[in-house]
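Morning, I've got a small favour to ask if you have a moment. I owe you a coffee for this, so here goes:
>
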Amino acid sequence: IPDVPIMYFLIIDVPLRGAAVQSSTYEGWSAGQAIDGSCSPDGKDSCTHTLAMDNPWWRLQLDGVYRVSVIEITNMYSTRKWLDGVEIHIGNSLVNNGNDNPRCAIIHDVPDGLTQTVHCWGMEGMYVNFYKPFNTTYLMLCEVKVYGGRNPFYQSNIAVPLRGAAVQSSTASGWTAGRAIDGSCSSGTDSCTHTSEMDNPWWRLQLDGVYRVSVIEITNRNVARDRLDGVEIHIGNSLVNNGNDNPRCAIIHDVPDSLTQTVHCWGMEGMYVNFYKPFNTTALTLCEVKVYGGRNPFYQSKSSLVWGWVYECDIWLG
């Protein structure tokens, strides 16, 4: 990896404010009650509550585009299991009400505390969504506190190509995982990967360290192009579920007018880059994957007490 000059940015993490909406409202348990400053878990006067519905969601619209470092979530003291499986998404799109933005985390009730802290490591966006991808269910939140800052502004011109080793969930007829990182953008049979037909196939690139990923270029095959539809890109440091539970950068599809497309991941941090296809009895094919980013900015955090609030001093070295 080429050396990159180190520049220093110092930002003070502050609580971010905005306006809240949700997919539906049950008997006055409005979306704004999750950002009213009260961490009370006692119910109607301080918590949100959707109707029973498919895929309920709650969204905070910030007053601009921010880098989100930390989110604190307070659950209700009863029906605590309603928090299980809720996804947090951050980004700038309102497609699918914002629920298709990159995913920071999947959360669950924490048995030993009603309030939990989730790190989103500087993910960028105006919208912070809580999304529950289940049928006929409720979403409840008693308090959501989002911390971050407007700076540093992400500079993609320091991104460099990243290298690593590739593996995949299975291999069909010698179409090995390493073909997607062989430097050839050919879309023919000699330079593409191919899994066997299986449930939830995946391909994973392991980088040689933890990086901030800025851009990923993906070249699709020139036939069976629809096999790229619905593929998820995940980036992170965990190998739980083969790395497919790491934060999601994007959901991609075939681009009709080009075999190669570019996806922005805005500095998401990780050692593993996964392509994951969450469908049954299907194959995953990739002809070339180019990942760009850099080791810096390196995220560090330390706490300081300011006016009775715990803020974070985020130091980015980039």
